[in-house]
Amino acid sequence: MLPYPVCALALLLVGCSTQGPAPVLRGATQVAPLTSSELAQSDLNRMATLGMRDNLDSLYRLLDKLYRRNPSEWRKTGSASREAAVQRVRNAIENRTPWPELQGQRDIAALSLALSPEFRGDRVAAFVYASADMLITAHDGKTTFYLVDGLDAQHIYNAARNIESAVWLLATRRSAAGQPLLLADEMSERERNLSFEREFGKIVGRLDLLSGVLTEKYRRAVITYVQNLAGASFLQFLPVR
User: Fold this and answer.
1) How many Cβ atoms are within 10 Å of 92's Cβ, its own excluded?
2) I need a labelling partner for 67 at 20 to 30 A (CA). Which of 38, 103, 186, 216 fits?
3) What pLDDT is stored for residue 119 in this prediction?
4) Using a CB cutoff of 8 Å and minimum separation of 24, what contacts does 139-145 make?
5) 239 within domain boundaries
């Protein structure tokens, strides 16, 4: 019979050998460097700013993915490469420069035009630009938010529903030739690609969260006001002589 210390060591070694593989690292949360402008932001302002940044990044990823699936679209622009076409659309969004093929339309009017079967321009660029313009419009035309800014919860909520409608139209509408307006998600016997749906879902989720927080903000303000009124009479000092 083995001595007790030897048995304990053997059990420890067996336990170690039966453990599963080390967890796979899939990145880590990133902390942005602190800037002086953040001193003029509330927690809600910061949340809205980060949400807008992430939503635009999602649209840029979708822009590149849609161009990969529909290379004929970026070639309509005369760009030298897909990367150049992506950068061109991105610059127009960030500089709030009107997209020529949308004929001066902005917001939901631009989105409707980009998803119409009759549209003949670069549909990928028009669709992503119009989606971004609609999101920025819903955020009062801003992408960064400070204490002096206010956001309408209903507008943010409506933007989320607009994204859902746009994704459904993108998946169901057909051209005059019976082809999808743009190739996106694919489900077949050989491939199952739902990455587009997941990316759009992230945008909708962020918008719904912000809308809910905005609504709760005003609700809590009313509750706090009532609590202060109700508690005022109980929190007064009383005479002791």
Assistant:
1) 18
2) 103
3) 92
4) 139/48, 139/52, 143/49, 143/52, 143/53, 143/56, 144/37, 144/49, 144/52, 145/41, 145/45, 145/46, 145/48, 145/49, 145/52
5) no
Domain count, the chain: 1
Give the phi and the psi of residue 179 in degrees, each rounded to 5.
Answer: -95, 150
Kindly state whether residue 132 falls inside one of the protein's structural domains.
yes
- Cα–Cα distance, 203 to 139 (Å, whole number): 14
The single-letter DSSP state of residue 187 is: E
Amino acid identity, position 19:
Q
**Do the domain assignments include residue 178?**
yes
Kindly report, residue by residue over 53-71, the tens digit of the pLDDT: 999 999 999 999 999 999 9
Q: Are 85 and 93 in contact (CB under 8 A)?
A: no
- Cα Rg of the chain (Å, integer): 26
Q: What is the pLDDT of residues 168-214, one digit of tens each?
A: 998 888 887 788 888 876 655 566 667 788 999 999 999 999 999 99
Question: Strand pairing partners for 118?
Answer: none
Q: How far is CA 233 from CA 60, 66, 107, 241, in A?
A: 56, 63, 51, 19
Per the CB < 8 A criterion, the answer to whether 119 and 113 are in contact is yes
Does residue 200 form part of some domain?
Answer: yes
Per-residue pLDDT, 42: 87
Domain that holds residue 138: 39-217
- Do residues 144 and 206 touch, judged by C-beta distance below 8 A? no
- Whole-structure pTM value: 0.78
- Residues of the chain short of pLDDT 50, as ranges, are 17
User: Tokens representing 53?
Assistant: 């940044």
